[in-house]
Design goal:
It contains 11 helices and 4 strands. By secondary structure, the chain is mainly alpha-helical. It folds into 2 domains: 159 residues, no CATH class; 81 residues, no CATH class. Helix 8 packs across helix 11 and helix 10 packs across helix 11. The longest helix is centred in the first third of the chain and has 41 residues. The protein is elongated. The chain starts with 5 loop residues before the first strand and ends with a helix.
Length: 263
């Protein structure tokens, strides 16, 4: 396994993307941060749960004079809640933050699907449920170190990869229309460009670079499909009227570049 293990993926839009796999060091560092955050959440829960349990036991003892079975029930619920918080922490963050947890965001790594798309609830849940198996006897570490794609068991089952989050490369070797620049200025104001990931930007750039080598029909179909997907990502109600899909993609490319330079 090299220090910088690169991998090429084919997206559903037939665009080839290249990523750097996150190594065992980055993943372990991110997991350490996540466990620290999780422990803090767990401590807050325990304090609240202890207060609630004491109040409930006092009420039951005053009512029926015995709380032995209730204490067992409360302990069982506490154990179940601990498991739910452990699984839910990773599921919620990886689903809502598009493959990132607080630890992964700090270390700048991300979980993606094998086709380069962001993970969804199903993949995040499978990864979280199998995390205890990976932690058992460090099985996950073994699979990551000796596996070609640096996947733990949860990644193999869920069909996911953990990659480094790279900064978007803004160098353009293709022509852009003047119409796209005006539309880009509008998108900076009206669109939610913060939802656009560097991976999404890479797909746009890859298409714009390769479109001249496509047949007119393939270019038309792929540009329309990408435009519809990007419309949803950046929270537009509809595509701009009287603008071709190609011009819209050029405008998103320019708008994302402008937004990133401001940030």
């Amino acid at each position: 396994m090299g220090f910088f293990n690169r991998i090429k993926l084919q997206t559903p839009e037939s665009v080839e993307l290249e990523f750097t796999l996150a190594g065992i060091g980055s993943r372990a560092y991110a997991l350490l941060i996540d466990y620290i955050v999780w422990i803090l959440i767990w401590l807050v829960f325990l304090i609240g749960w202890a207060f609630l349990s004491i109040q409930l036991i006092d009420v039951i003892e005053d009512w029926i004079g015995s709380s032995g079975s209730l204490q067992l029930w409360l302990l069982s619920i506490q154990i179940l809640m601990g498991f739910a918080l452990n699984v839910g922490y990773f599921v919620v963050f990886e689903t809502l933050w598009q493959g990132q947890t607080p630890g992964k965001r700090y270390v700048k790594i991300r979980v993606i699907r094998d086709d380069g798309a962001p993970v969804r609830l199903q993949q995040a849940t499978l990864r979280a449920l199998l995390r205890p198996v990976d932690d058992l006897l460090f099985l996950g570490v073994f699979f990551i170190i000796f596996g070609k794609r640096e996947k733990r068991i949860g990644d193999w089952v869920a069909g996911t990869l953990v990659v480094e989050e790279e900064r978007a490369n803004f160098s353009a070797s293709f022509p852009l229309s003047e119409e796209a620049q005006g539309l880009a200025d509008w998108l900076v104001i009206e669109a939610n460009l913060s939802r656009l990931l560097p991976d999404d930007f890479a797909v746009i750039r890859e298409y714009l670079q390769r479109r001249e080598g496509m047949t007119p029909e393939a270019k038309h179909q792929l540009s329309r499909r990408l435009a519809r997907q990007l419309k949803d990502i950046i929270s537009l109600e509809a595509l701009p009227q009287k603008v071709s899909a190609n011009v819209f993609l050029e405008a998103v490319y320019l708008a994302y570049q402008q937004q990133s330079e401001r940030d």
